[in-house]
Amino acid sequence: PFQSNPFSKLPHGRSPSVPCGQHVAVLLSQKIGEDYVRDLSQLAKLREFVDDDLFIREVAKVKQENKVKFALYLEKEYKVKINPSSMFDVHVKRIHEYKRQLMNCLHIITMYNRIKRDPVKLFVPRTVIIGGKAAPGYHMAKMIIKLINAVAQVVNNDPVVGSKLKVIFLENYRVSLAEKVIPATDLSEQISTAGTEASGTGNMKFMLNGALTIGTMDGANVEMAEEAGEENLFIFGMRVEDVAELDKDGYNAQQYYDRLPELKQAVDQIRSGFFSSDEPDLFRDVVDMLFHHDRFKVFADYEAYVKCQEKVSELYLNSKAWTKMVIRNIAAAGKFSSDRTIKEYARDIWHVEPSDLKIPPPNEPREGAEDRTPNGTAARA
């Protein structure tokens, strides 16, 4: 059900910068032609169809089909029943403190506690998917993975929660798995602390495949906001100057813990062994880091992150408005093309012009080349 080459039906072959959902590719080619595969800037033509009700329905239908396929895959691999109508909230990247998978985990616990506190209250269903690999000797990253799995074990088996919230940690995250999850993603998590992400390219892949982004003003999120408009991303939290100011004043995690009841509850549950009843002290190192050694200030952005996630849920209830924002994002993704990057390097750095000259492969003689002896040296007269 998952085509490794989504552009096998298009005449120009595959570009590394184009959507990896075959149905998305076909849908776009039907709407704006197939040349966008070679010239991604042509995606801007989609802006003409932002208010086209038929196109909006087609985009939403393609996304839902991809979600159903991926839900079936998750059920088969992880034995967890997935609600394909739930929001697929995806955070896949290297496991590292600065990527702040821990903040995502605190939000999962907060959502879980809200459901438990008032099970009949309206809750927009979510499937939170986290994936990535940790460096072999990186103890804290390994503990973050363990915590995510421990939280998933509690959440996924609580009958009060039911299909409202599920948590999956993707094992062995790799390209073949990315080809499945990226086309199925509704919400892309890009939540590193402002000023810590050199660039990042995963966020661009998600954008191009019809996911909306929740993130800080960091890395390529900045360029994405410039292209699509900040109003078409869910931007939250500290900016670079805010982080610098907090460093100057001194970051005190305890202040946030004391002020925010939901944060306090989530942290206390981790510390008390609520998610690790067999080993109550299992996550003490994680909690100690968050209070005393957190260079990436998870607690400082927690409140803004949770409030921004509430806005995400609110928009998700309005399928048409959500899909229109998706179309605006895809239409703005043309800049994020390796072809465009190489052309700019060629023009501005290497000062060379494009050429249609075809260079033959090494095993074919080049036209006009000197006759050569068997040992490769030029023949002499």
UniProtKB/TrEMBL annotation:
One function term, GO molecular function aspect: glycogen phosphorylase activity
Biased composition (Basic and acidic residues): 364-373
InterPro entries for this protein: Glyco_trans_35 (IPR000811), Pyridoxal_P_attach_site (IPR035090)
Source species of the chain: Bambusicola thoracicus
Cellular compartments per GO CC: cytoplasm
Family of this protein: Belongs to the glycogen phosphorylase family.
Protein name: Alpha-1,4 glucan phosphorylase
Reactions catalysed according to its record: [(1->4)-alpha-D-glucosyl](n) + phosphate = [(1->4)-alpha-D-glucosyl](n-1) + alpha-D-glucose 1-phosphate
PROSITE patterns: PHOSPHORYLASE (PS00102)
Annotated Gene3D superfamilies: Glycogen Phosphorylase B
EC number: 2.4.1.1
